[in-house]
Design goal:
The chain is an alpha+beta fold. It has helices at residues 3-24, 122-127, 129-133, 154-157, 217-220, and strands at 29-32, 47-51, 61-68, 78-89, 93-97, 100-103, 106-107, 115-120, 140-142, 148-153, 167-168, 194-198, 203-207, 223-224, 228-232. It has a domain at 29-113 and 170-232: Umud Fragment, subunit A, CATH 2.10.109.
C-alpha cells in the first residue's frame, strides 16, 4: 500500500468518524420532508439539515418531537419528529385571524408567504381554467356540488382572475377525536380564527406554513422547549 493510499484511507476514516459523532450528538441531522405541511417555503421531499447548536427563536423552522393525532382508517396516535415554524413563545398572547398570526395584538408575519385552501364557485373556476391545470393535482379538490377547492400560496393566488373574491376555507377544529389543545380551545374557534391564548413559559406554539394542511399546535398543543431537537439551517 502506497503512502498516498494510506493518507486517503486515514482521511476517509476520520471524516466518517466525525460524521458519526456529529450525527449522534444531534449537531447536524438530516431529514426529508414527508408532507406538504411546510409549503410553499419547504416543499414535500426536500432534504433539510437541522442542528441543536443553534438556539430556537421566534419564526425559526425547527424539528420537534410530538404525538400525531389518531385518524380512523389512516393511522393511530404515534410519536414522531415533525417540522414546523415557531410562531409564538412563552409569554406571548397569540391570536389567529384569517389563518395569520398576531402576537400581543400586532400582525407578526410580515413578508412570510403562506399557503391556504380556497373555495371557488363554478364561475371562478371557469375563469381560471388555464391556471388550475398547471397546479399539482394534490392541490385541487373537486366539489361535487360545483366549483372546487384549491391550495394556493399568497403569491400564486394574486395571479388568478377575481382572486379578491375567493373564499378562504374556515373549517372547525377536529371533533372526531380528543386532542391536547382542547383543554383551552373555546367554542367558535376554527383553523383560521383561533385565540387569543397565552403561551406558557418554556413552551412554543408551532405551526406549518401550509395552514390548511398542517396538524400542529392548534390541535397538538404547546411544544416544550426540550422537545425542540434542532433548528433548520437551510
Amino acid at each position: 500500500m502506497t503512502k498516498s493510499t494510506r493518507r486517503w484511507l486515514v482521511f476517509i476514516s476520520t471524516v466518517l468518524i466525525l460524521y458519526t459523532v456529529i450525527r449522534s450528538l444531534g449537531m447536524l441531522t438530516f431529514y426529508t420532508l414527508p408532507t406538504t405541511s411546510m409549503e410553499p417555503n419547504y416543499m414535500e421531499g426536500k432534504m433539510i439539515v437541522a442542528s441543536n447548536l443553534t438556539q430556537p427563536e421566534l419564526n425559526a423552522v425547527v424539528c420537534y418531537k410530538a404525538t400525531a393525532l389518531a385518524t380512523e382508517g389512516y393511522r393511530p396516535a404515534e410519536e414522531g419528529i415533525f417540522i414546523g415554524r415557531i410562531v409564538a413563545q412563552g409569554g406571548d398572547e397569540l391570536e389567529l385571524k384569517g389563518g395569520r398570526v398576531y402576537l400581543n395584538g400586532a400582525f407578526a408575519e410580515e413578508g412570510l408567504t403562506l399557503k391556504f385552501l380556497y373555495q371557488l364557485n363554478e364561475e371562478q373556476a371557469s375563469n381560471n381554467t388555464a391556471q388550475i391545470l398547471k397546479l399539482d393535482p394534490e392541490d385541487v379538490i373537486t366539489n361535487p356540488l360545483g366549483g372546487m377547492y384549491l391550495f394556493l400560496d399568497d403569491q400564486l393566488k394574486q395571479t388568478y382572475t377575481g382572486h379578491e373574491e375567493f373564499k378562504q376555507y374556515n373549517g372547525p377544529l377536529r371533533d372526531d377525536v380528543e386532542y391536547p389543545a382542547s383543554a383551552w380551545v373555546e367554542e367558535g374557534w376554527t383553523v383560521n380564527n383561533y385565540g387569543p391564548v397565552i403561551i406558557p413559559a418554556g413552551q412554543y406554539f408551532i405551526m406549518g406554513d401550509n395552514r390548511h394542511n398542517s396538524e400542529d399546535s392548534r390541535l397538538r398543543g404547546f411544544v416544550y422547549q426540550e422537545d425542540v431537537i434542532g433548528v433548520v439551517l437551510n
